[in-house]
Design a protein that fits this description.
The protein is α/β, with parallel strands linked by helices. 45% of the residues lie in helices and 16% in strands. It has a 7-stranded mixed β-sheet. α1 runs parallel beside α2. Bound molecules: zinc ion (2 copies).
Length: 286
């Protein structure tokens, strides 16, 4: 039992399982450690850590921050953070407030397009956690407005579509500083969503490195072997640690299983050990 998953979501953001359920599930799937990395929130971490202690599964406190950069976007993972850090909590509150403002706007646009969707339905779908577009998409599906979740994004919700509303996102400098000040290490998530162009990607990594990037998510559910290899080369070249995870969302993202992604993902515990070494070096520098 040496396998881990450093990228998972609970119902505190847009995953299907509660933090405690997710931890129990990770244990059932025989993982040795799991990081909870909910989108823009640390609300699930206390519950996950408590469940980990109870079940004897190592839980790494993390989060995944949405970052705005030029004409694309980046997801930045923060690991081994102090999730009670007041500065971090305050910054995340700004995001949550903007999300709360954004959802009614999306609902209004959908209503204007002739779809009967209400905020109450979204709240029910999110089970009391924060409401994201994945919840909106699944409500559209359950009401028969679209065939599936992907269609909801393609027709209405994604950038350039009629019910899209931009959300507030941090600039990269702020995101790196948030993670650093909370004592964590920064890792760029699923790097190829930034760009498929490898030269461009390398230029981004170089830039992020100067802002304090510590690692790169080389092992990821949607990566080809070749993409993983390229990320590993970048890590070597820019002295970054390598991490990996499935981006498990439970039933909210079908086809992706915890620990194994689409079937062939494997993340070894030794990567977590290296991440911890990097983290302890950071602590010495700070
Ligand atoms: Zn992501
Ligand atoms: Zn994610």
């Amino acid at each position: 039992m040496h396998w881990i998953d450093l990228h998972t979501h609970s119902a505190a953001s847009d995953g299907a399982l509660s933090p405690a359920e997710l931890v129990a599930y990770a244990q059932q799937r025989r993982l040795k450690a799991m990081a909870l990395t909910d989108h823009d929130t640390i609300d699930g971490l206390d519950e996950a850590l408590a469940a980990g202690t109870e079940l004897g599964l190592e839980i790494i406190p993390g989060l995944e921050i949405s970052v705005k950069i030029e004409n694309t976007s980046m997801h930045l993972l923060g690991y081994l953070i102090d999730h009670h850090h007041p500065g971090l909590i305050k910054e995340l509150l700004i995001l949550q407030e903007s999300r709360a403002e954004r959802n009614p706007q999306i609902v209004r646009k959908l209503n204007d397009l002739g779809m009967d969707v209400s905020l109450e339905e979204l709240e029910r779908a999110s089970g009391g956690g924060q409401i994201g577009r994945l919840h909106i998409a699944s409500v559209l599906k359950s009401k028969g407005h679209v065939e599936n979740v992907q269609e909801a994004f393609d027709l209405y919700l994604k950038q350039g579509r009629p019910a899209h509303v931009d959300k507030f996102r941090f600039d990269p400098e702020t995101a790196f500083a948030m993670i650093r000040s909370a004592g964590g290490v920064s890792v760029v998530a699923h790097p190829f969503t930034l760009t498929k162009d490898r030269n461009e990607l390398e230029a981004w990594i170089r830039r992020f490195k100067s802002m304090g990037l510590s690692g790169i998510e080389a092992y990821y559910s949607d990566h080809t072997t070749d993409q993983t290899q390229f990320c590993r080369q970048l890590a070597l070249k820019y002295d970054l640690v390598v991490t990996g995870g499935s981006d498990f969302h439970g039933a909210n993202k079908p086809g992706i299983e915890i620990g194994v992604g689409r079937g062939n993902l494997r993340v070894h515990y030794s990567l977590l050990e290296k991440l911890k070494v990097e983290w302890s070096h950071r602590a010495l520098v700070a």
